[in-house]
Amino acid sequence: MDGEDLKFTVVIPTCDRPEELSKCVEALGPGKQSLSFQDYEVIVSDDGKDKNVKENLSKKFDYIRWIPGPMRGPAANRNNGAKYAKGPWLVFADDDCIPDEKWLEAYWGAINRDPETKVYEGRIYSKKRQQYLDESAPLNESGGFLWSCNMAIERIFFKSINGFDERYLYASMEDVDLRERIIESGFEFNFVKEAAVEHPYRRINWYKSIKPYYKSLNLYLRIHKNKSKKHFGYLHFRRAIRGFVYDIIPFIFKLRFRGFFGKIYHLMALVYIGVILCWLDLSEKFKRQGINI
User: Fold this and answer.
1) Are 78 and 45 in contact (CB under 8 A)?
2) 14 closest CA partner among 74, 75, 85
3) For the chain, N or C: smaller number of CB within 10 Å?
4) Sequence-ordered list of residues with C-beta below 8 angstroms from that of 133, at least 6 positions apart, any chain
5) Is 190 a domain residue?
6) Of 61, 52, 115, nearest to 89 (Cα)?
């Protein structure tokens, strides 16, 4: 398809989640979106090891442009898909999201109403009710997050800020880093509620995910030296308290303690990370004063 005729390139990074990916790309097929199918293309950048996924899904969804991923994490995988884009606007979605029918049309309407804006974020919701205490979903009902699972960005601008930072090797903090660089470059991003995707709750193995999260957070704080470690420490304390008050207490009996230990581990890890960050902040202050501790 000629890039001059396109409005969007939808970029979907994936890694060994064929069932979720199938639901995602099905919602983007001909006649599935209220925006004409001639106005967008769909690129899947595949970091997965199972090559049968490409063979099976390419037959079922022949409109996908399937690109081999770089195998260096989700940030590099998104950049890889964007590199092959023909449309003037990139729209990112995760492989476990299901776009609403008016998803792309809503973004295009927002772009036409405010042509000076270069970045947009959409609504993220879940139809499924939470079944376990250790389930999570990046819900976004009012904006301000710019989660990478539902965002639109002008392709030229995306390239000018070097896309996602590929030093982030895990699915954590890479979109926060992008958001900060967009703000630092003097641009704002707008929330388009009608540009919605469904992101079902899914269980998180917090025992495995906390260490990659901390590595990503550490990298973020090294890159963005203007960010206070103490501020992020307190932020983790607040998240732990809110998690206990709003996630555990109201649902502990309703969900019959399902996922209880995973959630408790998560909250304890947040407190631990908060303590480390506050200690590092204090240590740096003492070092600047010539005091070794």
Assistant:
1) yes
2) 74
3) C
4) 247, 248, 251, 252, 255, 257, 258, 259, 260, 262, 263
5) yes
6) 115
Q: For residue 90, what are the β-bridge partners?
A: 9, 153
Q: Considering only CA atoms, which of 287, 215, 233, 8 is closest in space to residue 122?
A: 8
Do 141 and 10 share a structural domain?
yes
For 64, the 3-state DSSP assignment is: strand
Taking alpha carbons only, the member of 35, 27, 186 closest to residue 105 is 35
CA pseudo-torsion sign 252, 255, 258, 263 = negative
Start-to-end C-alpha separation, the chain: 63
According to DSSP, residue 161 is labeled: T
Q: Are strands 189-198 and 98-99 parallel, antiparallel or unpaired?
A: antiparallel
In 155-241, the DSSP E strands lie at 189-198, 202-203
Q: Which two tokens stand for residue 14?
A: 């994936």
Global pTM reads 0.94
Per-residue model confidence as pLDDT tens digits over 90-149:
999 999 999 999 999 999 999 999 999 999 999 999 998 899 999 999 999 999 999 999
Using alpha carbons, select from 205, 132, 216 the residue that is nearest to residue 172. 216
Q: What domain range is 281 assigned to?
A: 228-288
Half-sphere exposure of 117 (CA within 13 A, CB side): 18
226-247 confidence digits (pLDDT tens): 999 999 999 999 999 999 999 9
Residues in CB range of 51: below 8 A, 6 or more apart: none
Both structure tokens of 111: 């772009």
At 69, list the tokens.
Answer: 């991923």
List alpha helices for 84-137, DSSP H. 103-113
For residue 11, list its beta bridge partners: 43, 92
Q: Give me the residue label for tokens 């109403």.
A: 113
The torsion angles phi and psi of 40, rounded to 5 degrees, stand at: -150, 160
